[in-house]
Design goal:
Blueprint: E1 3-11, H1 12-21, H2 29-50, E2 56-59, H3 64-74, E3 80-89, H4 91-98
Antiparallel strand pairs: 1-3, 2-3
Length: 100
Amino acid sequence: MIHAQALFLESTAIVQNYQQQTPAYALLFPQWSEHTSAMHQYMMWISLDALGFGANLQHYQTVPAVQERTREMFGLPGDWELKAQLVRSFYEYLKDICMD
C-alpha cells in the first residue's frame, strides 16, 4: 500500500507582517489567511477526486502535540502552524493495475 499526503502549513509571522504593513486591514488578515488555506485544501481535494482518487482531509489546529511534532519532524520554524493534512492511500488503484 502506498500512502501520500499533502500538508497545509501557515507562517503566522507572515500574516502578522501583513497586519503591521496595512493597519487598516489588520483584523482581516487572519481570516483571509484561513480562507486562502481552505481554498487550496478544497482545490487539491476535488482535483484528486476528478482523477478518480478519494482522499481524507484532517484538521489539526487545536491539537498542540500534533503541531509540535510536525515542526520537529520537518524542521519547521516555531511560527509555522499545520492547518490541514490531505491523506490518500493508493491501495485500490495499485490493486487494480498490479494484481490481475
